[in-house]
């Protein structure tokens, strides 16, 4: 008899189903040869600092840095009740009893095949002091065929020691950085009740958003001009843009005015016609970041965190392969499986005859697989999905099928029309989709720019000339799609600075990123919950609190993309057996000690509500000038603070209490996630009404569907000690 430990109950059931085991007991399935039990993710967690030392119950600067001599584990806690989680305690007892049964000869870890999945079972088995042989089931999907095949090919768990080292190192490094720097930063800069989270992945991600916001604010819009002429001859009409040295945007308006004067009512001739057929291939298979970016940008109501949860559910239901992958290609060993899946999926499709299985490096390339292959469907076709599950599943299925369909073909036409006697050239571009190819599967609508059927040498008249004014655009704020991509490719910008062979550099920089596919969505979510960022529709923007921690914290390595990327790459290399665990942890301990020292010795003022409201958009603005301006400016009193009774006044970012010097932290932020998703923010009038009545009504608000609704906005009383958390309900 062998005990199999799955990561979740749903996966345990998939294994039981594959083995035709029907008997379900309390906490496990029982068959003739296997006992299948499960965790609920992590059943154990690292000790808190106070578990090692009573003095750590109260945060004091002199007690940091705190670095345990040895890390220890305890049963997961119930955060709300502040006690041990009874469910975790019960399941751990069940696992122990099963393993120590006399008829059990060995244990098989069947948790997810990544560094987090590896340590879920490893920590449990170490905690229970298991001496029996331990094996590892390594699967990329939970279909019956793969489970049976995988159990025939289990390997000794000790072969996965490098992956275990990487998982444990990640866990301990994040504990050391998070516990020490969050505590010290909060004590030094936070002021009363203002928690400042500091994390290995959180801060560099926030820094990217901060940098983009500053770049947008500093951007100076510059005007530019274009000159467009309309050409006619009988039924033939088209437009062209004046182009000089391949440039069609000009800063000098007077220059174009003179050209306009010279071409009005003139004759023109088509002096060049180029027709080029271009072939368009489908984008590569999805990895997790690409899937999250595709779904969040295409559909309303999705976050990257939600996409991950849906993909995880589809995986556990056996409809797709393992989703937490960074690869966009398949291992070459999967050729036969992919062929079988493709022929199952294509049956009955209207373009079935156009789908042909071929083996190509674009799809199958073992050298480019990072731990797990790209996400593809399995042969188990879902019969009933929720609308959101269907969107995610179809995206994965369609991207897979598209790899084996013909490419799309586009015909691009470029005309050059020259004004007679002047030599001025106007360029016209057209585009016609000749063959849809793989685009049929998504029913993509093409944006054809169709030109009239004309030939070189045709003479026409200049019917009209229009001079238009435009402005340069600042960089776009990050969305979840673009931020995920930036996190995934962190450091690859440095590749351009190297002279080595590009393929060699790509191999070096593989894994050079912020976080992992499994953690990036959670990082973005945490940035919002810690109030470092907020969502403005699909855009992610930095809050005053987020700016404050970036501008104040002296530990700049944590905000350095290259440094953070190297840490992540080191963990990935450790998982491959190329880096020693102790070397990495020694570096982290040294880094934490130096970082705590830098924070302790820095001269700074704690973050207050008033700082948050009136803090300059950029640290480069002159602080004293702003303070003088604020002192001389007469401020309108909008109402009384519901916490301390002092006056509420308007600041740059919110409506705050003038009693901040006495410690009051009440503020109504102008930009609140609860309202920004409707495209609204707190105005002065709305703030007045909230202060006077405690609630206010917003009319003529549009939902994402375009329907007009009415919102009731209230100020949460339980949040009033720190700030006014808005509660928004649809009336």
Summarize the structure.
The protein has 22 helices and 27 strands.
Q: What would you note in describing this structure?
A:
- With 731 residues, the protein is of the alpha+beta class.
- It folds into 5 domains: 2-153, Rossmann fold; 169-218 and 487-601, Topoisomerase I, domain 2, CATH 1.10.460.10; 223-281 and 409-471, Topoisomerase I, domain 3; 288-402, Orthogonal Bundle (Topoisomerase I, domain 4), CATH 1.10.290; 615-730, no CATH class.
- It is 36% helix and 20% strand.
- It contains 22 helices and 27 strands.
- The strands form 7 sheets. It has a 7-stranded mixed beta sheet with strand order 2-3-4-1-9-10-11. It has a 6-stranded antiparallel beta barrel with strand order 12-13-16-15-14-17.
- Helix 6 packs antiparallel against helix 17 and helix 10 crosses helix 15 (520-529).
- The protein is globular and about 100 Å long.
- The protein starts with a strand and ends with a strand.
